[in-house]
Structures are given as structure tokens and as C-alpha cells.
Amino acid sequence: MMNSEAVQSYQAKIDQLLANPQPYPEGQFAGQGIVICGAGERYFPGSWVSIKLLRHLGCRLPIELWYLGAHEMSQQMIELLAGLDVDCINAHAVAQQHPIKSLDGWEIKPYAIMRSKFAEVLYLDSDNVLVKNPEFLFSTPQYQEHGALFWPDFHFENVASLNHEAWEVLQVPFRDEPPIQGGQLLIDKARCWLPLQLTLHLNEYGEEFYYALFYGDQDTFRLAWRRVKQAYAMVPYPPIYMENHQGYFQPGLDGQVLFQHRLESKWQLHRPNPLIPGFLYDAECRQFLRELEVQWSGQVRRLPDDFSPIERAIYDELVTTQSYAYTISDQVGIFAGVSRPGRMDFQSDFKLIYDTHLGDLQWTITLDHHNQPTLTVKDDRRDRWFMKQVAPQTWRGRLRTDEQAVIELTPLKNEHELPAFIQKIWTWQDQLLAVPVPAKLRPVARQTFEAVSQQRFFTYQLHGPLTVFPFVPNQGIVTLNPDFTITLDFDLPDPPLGWTVVEDEPGQAVIVLTNTIMVIGSLRQTGEQSWHGDVELLVPGLQVTLTPTMVEPQQNGDK
Asked: Does the predicted TM-score (pTM) go above 0.85?
């Protein structure tokens, strides 16, 4: 549970906002238009494709492309869109006239909708493309009746998309209903000005408080509309997963696909873009990308050369110090109050070495709308967290993952003060980051890998805090597959589990357990093909023992 005093404080802020809302600014907005938030090297290709396809489909609605400061949009990029009736709006500049507390990522969506010049807005994520001209949506009876038309996200019966604490904190009665999918929103600002104000408020204080309750901006729309008791129209057809969950097709009011949201396969320049079965206008989208490649290098700035003096000073400080100790603290859920220490190294080429993380992470420095430095850590798909400097060489922020934990960085003074397991991981870094193929394992590790994968089937016994995951039996059968995946005899939610073998001290092999994203534990041999160790990074205090068995699992779980 969250701190009761903090909850009461933020509830009071909402009460004050709703008691004294801003009146709708008559005459400030006019007409209908499309708002897209998405610039920078990762999102601009998708915005370009979406805009070009809209014009190809005959859409003549004016478009605003919103971005977060000069680090996301160069003059050349702005000029590329000039002939497509697109106004590029710098949210940082707008914030000088319309102040907002926080404006780093998710906050820009409700902010752009409210501050756009349009009275009626079709909002689109940058990785979302239509398959027909959307102008007709403004004339649909459902939108005309309510002034807001939303699309459903995936909804599983009897599985809450929002934890009950979120409803309680917002003082909204719980509803078992489809969540709103935030990739497309149709809103009449005059009729929805009050819930829009509350939506913006929840995001404005999201990093500070509300993002601990839910992931991202889209739940803030539903909670705001429900809190002020304002009805909205919802398309009655659920989304449809694309192959391999690369995104989803979103039907319109007639049940036919209207939006194609490439959530996990965003359009990219100079990289392969996977072909998705059923994706319409694929050839046209690829042609638009080729046109962009001819006109734009794919870079907004050349770093670190193009850093501002403030950004350059922070960059020099980070790469000179290089090694930082971090503490990640869960705020809600089953591990609320638990802190996990570790180490991160900032490389001069903007790579981040993060002890337990197995993927590629990058970091950068930008200036926010207050002209204060923001430390951003990202992977190939999205920004993972934003951090602000709260004291000299001290950074704090919130992980933008489902857990929304708080993270704090300070210079690492003594690596021996780190937990022993974290120290071990750093000695295994070159082995863990290598592509997991048997031929690349060290000799002792390879020999152990061959023996374990030949045995394959083990009984597992869990020891420790077992109640945190009631769906996990404390004993059963596990399969360590030769492709470095793990199969359990029960279904396990994503991400899937994996394993590899590293060589510790000469002649000693260690089985390292992963969830494909990060290291979660390690096992050492205690007998002939028997292994014991902990999964401390998954569940603090949890240990596991593996012993060989000839019994194959009766059913396969998720790999």
C-alpha cells in the first residue's frame, strides 16, 4: 500500500482542481485536426510514415506534430513536413506560456491535445497508421453523442487491468471494463475540458506519484472520465494481435480494421522492418521510408559535439565518474519497500552497462522545459527511465516499466560494498553479454552446458517466500532446453525464462537464470547433476534446488 499521508495529499490536489477547474477558453481553439506526438530519431520515421499515408488516403485535415525540445527536432526535419500541411509544435516553447510541472514523455499526450489549436482532436501515436481517411469519425453518432470516442485495449474477464489501489486512490468505484487504448483518441475539447484537465493533472504528477499505480498515460484518461462521471463512447470491437505480438489491428465502429499500431515493430531507418502478415499499405509505407532515407540522415544531433554547455558538462561528469551505485525501490505491490542495490557504468559512446540487464541500453542527456538536465536511459524500443539531478552527482527517477519503481544513482565509492551476487555478475559480464551459443561458452561452461542439456529434466523445489506468486507451485518439473530456454510444467506470464552457463573460478561452472531481459539468479552444483542457488533478483530470499529426473513434464508452459 502507498503512504496514506501521500495519498491524502494528492487526493486533496484533485479535489482542489475539480472544485476550481479552468473554464474552457472560448475562441482559442477552432476546427478539427490531427495531433501526433513523436519526433526524435526513434519516433520521427513513424510519424513521417503516418502523415504521408494520411495524405495518400486523401485526408486533408491539418496536422500538428508535437515534440519535446530542440534535441528531438532539427530545422531540416521541420522543413521536410512543411509541404504536407503539418505544423511542428515545440512543447517546451508552449510550456513557457502554459506551465506544466513535468513534461518528459507520457505527459505530452494530454498536454498536446489540450494545447493544440484544434477544437476537436484525433490523437494518434507515431507508430499508428490508418487504413482509410479518418475524417468521417468526427461525424459518427457515437462521437456526436458523447464528445469522446475511445478504442478498447485488451481486456480479460475477471483480470483487473488496473490494480484496485489505483481506483481507491482516485476515489472511483471499481469497474470491470475494457481499458482505453491510448494509441488513438477522438475528443471534443469544449465538451471534455474538465476530464482533460484531470487527465493532464494525473500525468503532470505521474512521475512524482501516479505512475506508481499504473503504466503510462492511457489509464489516466479512463480514470479522469470516470472520476468526473462523464460518459464516453467506446468502440465495441477489441483489438487483434499482429503476428508475434508485434502490435495490433484496431477495428472501427463497423468492426473492420481501421488502425494498425506497430507497437513493438516501429518503423525505423537503416534497419530491417519486419513484414507483418495482414498489414495493409505495407508497400506504400516502405516507399515513404525510402523517401525519408534520401532526405534525412536519421540523426537530430551529432553527440557529444552538439551538446549544449550544460549537457556537455553533465556528459563529462558521468563518463569521468563512470561507475555509479544504484538503488531500485518498489513503491507498490508485493515488494513494496524492498530496495535492490547494484551498479551501472556510463560509457563515452552512450552505452550503459547495467549489471543484471542482458540487452543493449543507451543513455543520453537532454534539457527539459525548465532548462534542467534530464538523464534518459533507453533501449531499441522505448525510453526506460528519466532521471533528474536532485543533488550534486545524485540522480533520481522512476523506472518506466510495469513496476514503476524509484531508482537513485550516486557515484560508486567501493565496489566491495555491493552485494556479493552483484559483484559476481560483473566478473561474468563478457560471458553474459555474448550471444548464447554453445560454441562461445568457455570450456568448463560448455562441458556443463552439454551435460545439463542432455539431462534436460529436473525436479525443482522452492524455498523461502513462496506466497508472493500464488500461481507458482513450490515444486514441480522444469526443463532446461538446449536452446537456452526454460520450460515449466505450468503457465508462467511473460517474460519467458532462460538459462546459460558461465565459468566462475577456474574449473567451476555456474548456471545463470534469466528472464531474457535480465539475470534473476544463479545455481551451483551440489552433487552429481544437482544444483542449488537463489533467485534473489526475482523474489528476495527465494531459493531453488534442482535434482535430475527421468519424468517428463505432463504439460508445457510458456517458453
From this structure: yes
